[in-house]
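Researcher: Before we compare anything, I want clean individual predictions. No alignment, no superposition, just each chain on its own. First chain goes here; please echo the sequence and then give the structure tokens.
Model: Echoing the first chain and its structure:
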Amino acid sequence: MDGVVDDRLAPARAEEIAMEVFAAIAIVIAIMGLYAIVSFSVASRTRELGVRLALGATGRSLFTLVIRDGLRLAATLEPPHVAAPR
């Protein structure tokens, strides 16, 4: 009896495994994209971060600034300081 049930559920299990693999790949691609945008944001703000550091900002406050902007990006999907008019 168990063999019959296993045979009937085999295609559904294969689809489930395939969907899990594709979901994992999608998450990895999304994380890579988020990393790329945050690193671009930091690279484009290198002078600003340097000035803040020279004026007395701590490494922790700069780290907090970058992380906060990254979280804002993740929440709104709008790159902070990248699309802002200059």
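Researcher: Okay. Second chain, same rules.
Model: Second chain and its structure:
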Amino acid sequence: MIYQTGYAYRGNYGAHAIKISVGNLQIWYSYQTPIAFSAPDYERVARRNDWGPTTGKHFTAIGISRKERIGETFEALLQEATLKNFLETAKHIPSERLQGRKAA
């Protein structure tokens, strides 16, 4: 199931701050850019702020300090966590749903 929520943030900045949860994976977005995620095998992982003060306020809203942010490896870690979450979620789908329904 997919859930979408805004951050618990006051003011205009919350309109562009979104958290999406899919299974055990949570991804925080600033506008359309993923800026952080968490998953069972990963504590909260956050990318470096390459944009500006509004994205910085979004990091603050989710409680991420400057020293917690990483650079180039963020995208690879997010892809890895997304794939692991997908594979874990797929284990719980009945096989007949994966193969399609048989005609009656």
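Researcher: What stands out in the second chain?
Model: The chain has one domain: 2-83. Additionally, The chain has a mean pLDDT of 80.
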